[in-house]
Amino acid sequence: MLRIAALVLVVTACGPATEGPVARPLPPKPVAHAGSAAAGSGAGSAAQPGPVAAPELGCPAPSCAYHAGAAGYFTCLSGGAGACFHFGGPCAPADGCMFDGHAYRPCTRAVEGTCAQWGAGACAPRSGCMFDPADGLHHHCDDVAGGTCNRYGALCAP
Fold it and tell me: How confident is the model at residue 57 (pLDDT cuts 50, 70, 90)?
């Protein structure tokens, strides 16, 4: 129960991430009055730098990723470099295209991260990021055919 409350707090506290760094002004430097010792030269009279760009850190965006060991889809809470490092609860991809252990097929009824009823034909995830059973990682597929990838490219976030 405490974990759920913490997760709700994190999710609701996060705002939308912005693109690129955001300029944050430094606090104003003290103003020297005429006739004071700080008004000219000497120690500590160096000019203070202008605004400093600090990256805006957004909240994590969980995705729905295939977990080969469980043969199903789970919420990926933390991942990168083609792998999910921390899985959450079961989920289903928004586009309904799921990996069946051999190829990607449309799923017409997903239950607890697995497909209970497959549709006809083949599909490919809209993102182009596909699970490669040979190395157990997710790669961008550069050549999709019949729900499988003929040529895997760079690693992608699941």
Answer: low
The set of residues, in sequence order, having a beta carbon less than 8 Å from that of 59 and lying 6+ positions away, is 10, 11, 13, 14, 15, 17
Residue 72 token pair? 């199903």
Cα(first)–Cα(last) distance of the chain, in Å? 28
Cut 0.85: pTM above it: no
Dihedral of the CA atoms 74, 113, 102, 133 (nearest 10)? 10
Closest of 107, 97, 94, 108 to residue 141, by C-alpha: 97
Residue 129, classed as helix, strand or coil, is: strand
In this predicted structure, the answer to whether residue 149 has a pLDDT above a threshold of 70 is yes
For the segment 92-121, the average pLDDT, to the nearest whole number, is 97
Provide the token pair at 55: 């990256």
Q: Concatenated DSSP letters for 30-49?
A: PPPPTTSGGGSSSTT-PPPP
Average pLDDT over residues 47-55: 64
Return the structure tokens found at 133.
Answer: 């059973």
Provide the 8-state DSSP code for 9: H
C-alpha distances in angstroms, 18 versus 59, 77, 157? 10, 20, 19
Backbone angles phi, psi at 127, to 5 degrees: -70, -20
